[in-house]
Amino acid sequence: MTPDVTAMCDTERRRLRSLVEPDLVTADALHAADYQLITPNGHALTKRDYLGDIAAGRLRYQVFEPASEILARCSSQLAILRYRARIIVATRGPAVAITCWHTDYYELREGSWQAVWSQATAISPQAAEDQPFSG
Questions:
Q1: 30 lies in some domain
Q2: What confidence score (pLDDT) does residue 66 get?
Q3: Given pLDDT bands bounded at 50, 70 and 90, which one contains residue 17?
Q4: For residue 115, what pLDDT is reported?
Q5: Domain range for residue 114?
Q6: Number of domains within the chain
Q7: What is the DSSP string of the chain?
Q8: What rounded mean pLDDT belongs to the chain?
Q9: How far apart are CA 99 and CA 65, in angstroms?
Q10: pLDDT, position 130
Q11: Quick one: CA dihedral 34, 114, 66, 64, positive or negative?
């Protein structure tokens, strides 16, 4: 059975809320054991590293929310979501605001949808005016 697109988008919003609040019980359930995040800076983080940084306060999301419609491609066992995200995050210093394209790959595992991969690509402020492949 193909998942309901609205339900998948709601799952993604719930995952984002769990990272901001932080609600690590919910975040743990919504991220697969082999989860990996590729950050806007190109760093690869495992679930343990990512949620561990949030738990320790080294990574603090003030805002992490869709800034566009969430588009979804779904089948019975996987879902891919893509949207523009607005993020305000603090790591070692003052909070930084970024806008990025965010893509999440979910799999249905043991009856629950879990994020397996996330990729964030920063959008520069002038990107709306730029040609896609110009220098």
A1: yes
A2: 98
A3: very high
A4: 98
A5: 5-122
A6: 1
A7: -PPPHHHHHHHHHHHHHHHHTT-HHHHHHHEEEEEEEE-TTS-EEEHHHHHHHHHHTSSEEEEEEESSPPEEEE-SSEEEEEEEEEEEEESSSS-EEEEEEEEEEEEEETTEEEEEEEEEEE--TTTTTS-TT--
A8: 92
A9: 10
A10: 58
A11: negative
Distance CA 58, CA 52 (A): 8
Neighbours of 53 (CB within 10 A): 14
Instruction: Please write the tens of the pLDDT for every residue from 80-127.
Output: 999 999 999 998 888 999 999 999 999 999 999 999 999 999 998 766
In a domain? residue 135: no
In 3D space, the residue among 97, 73, 94, 96 whose CA is nearest the CA of residue 83 turns out to be: 73
The neighbouring-strand residues paired with 113 are 108
The CATH code of the domain that includes 79 is 3.10.450.50
In a domain, 134, yes or no: no
The answer to the question of residue 17 being in a domain is yes
In the structure, what pLDDT confidence band is assigned to residue 132 with cuts at 50, 70 and 90? low
pTM over 0.70: yes
